[in-house]
Structure formats: C-alpha cells, structure tokens
UniProtKB/TrEMBL annotation:
PROSITE patterns tied to this protein: PROKAR_LIPOPROTEIN
Keyword RNA-binding applies: no
Keyword annotations from UniProtKB, A to Z: Signal
Organism: Actinoalloteichus fjordicus
Top-rank taxon, per record: Bacteria
Lineage: Bacteria, Bacillati, Actinomycetota, Actinomycetes, Pseudonocardiales
Name this polypeptide is given: DUF4098 family protein
Signal sequence interval, chain numbering: 1-29
Amino acid sequence: MITPRRRRLRTLLASGGALLGITVLSGCADVVDAADPEIRGFGPAAEHLVISVSDVEHLDVRSADVDEIEVTRWFAGSSFMGSTDAIWELDEDRLTLATDCSPFVIGRCDARYEVRVPSGVNVTIEGDSGEVSASGFDTDLTITTSSGRILIDDVGGALALSTESGELRGAGIRSSQADVTSASGEVELFFAEAPEELTTTAQSGEVTIVVPLAPYRVTTTTGSGNVTTQVPTDPNGPHSITVETDSGEITVTSVGS
C-alpha cells in the first residue's frame, strides 16, 4: 500500500522539487495583501550582510542584479489601543526589519518584507518567528530562526539552516557544503548537484534528502523511525551524507540517470 507520505514523495520527485520552488517564490501573498508597498534603497552592501528580523510575518530575500540593497515593505498597522510601527534600518552591515507593536494593541500589526541583495554578497538571516524564504544565492547563506518555516530555492554557496520549530524545505540546491538543523519540524531537501558534505540533524520530524545519482558515503542514525536509503554507496566516495534524528523517519534517495 502506498502511504500518503510515499505518494507525496513520488509527486515531488516527479516534479524535481518544483513544488517547493513555487512555494519559495510565491512567498506569503495573503499576508497584508491590502497594504500599499513601500520601497527603499539602503546603498551598496559590504561583502557580508546580516538581516535581523523581529515580529515579521514573512521575509523573502533574493540575490539580484542590483547596485544596492533594495527593500520593499508591506505593513498593515491599526489599533484601537496602543501603537503600531514598522522598522527598517541599516547599521553598518546589519539590516534590521521589524514591527513595533505595543502589548495592548487591539487591531492589526503585520508586516512582510522583500529584500533584494546585490550578487556576490554573503548573507546571514537571524529571525525569531515568521516564515523566511531565500533564493538565487551563489554565495554563503546562513538562516537561523526560533519559530517559522524556512524555504530556500536555487542556492549554491555554503549553506547553514537552523530552526527551533518549523519546517525546512529546499529545492534546486547546488551547495557543496550544507549543515541543516531542526529541533522540531519536517526537513525536505532537493539537491540539483551532489553535495560534498551534507549534515542534517533533527530532534523531531521526518527527514527527506533527494540528491543526484552518484556514489555517497551515507551515515544515518535515528532513535525512533524507519530509515530508507536508496542511493549508490561508496565508503571512499567524494560525497558524504550524514542524517541523524531522535524521532522521525529518514529517507535518502537519488534521481537521475
């Protein structure tokens, strides 16, 4: 019998991860969709940009052919009591994006941000809660959140993803080095190129890794859950996959000819 999880995996494999890519690029269109967008430039970026996010529903960050950091903001703030405000400011290499809503707000205080970063810039994203998506990076990309889904698409530099609570999903990954950590939440990663070293650690949640057909050194460990490995293995091969979960199924499979 084909389980719902197996059926979903087959669908994703058939699409080459395209469903994840669509999710990443579409973002969170229903959040503050009635608000008028505001656009602001923050000047050229240094080699490394840190984006700090607080109390934001959705952040979408893209590497783009632009000369400066460009930010588009949608903010819906209204209250019967208290105050609402949205913050965007750059201090040296740190871009802060946030909402500032008093604890007694009766109304709405939501924001969505889209950031376009000049190509060639390494990016670190630090978030508390809310969805974060990133795409188009050939440079190093680090994303850390306390709570909220992380979505990535078409990335090729060194990759580090970490969340305490929330799904981690990626498609079109070309990174040779990837380190992914989830305390709670499902992990799904589709690689367009075989990684040299992939390490995935999840305390609770299913982990699915899909890689191009190649020989891999595979190490899987789980405290509770089934392990399925469907890739060619070579203990001396140039590609390494390590997956560890405390509780949750592990699936490592390959596509291609």
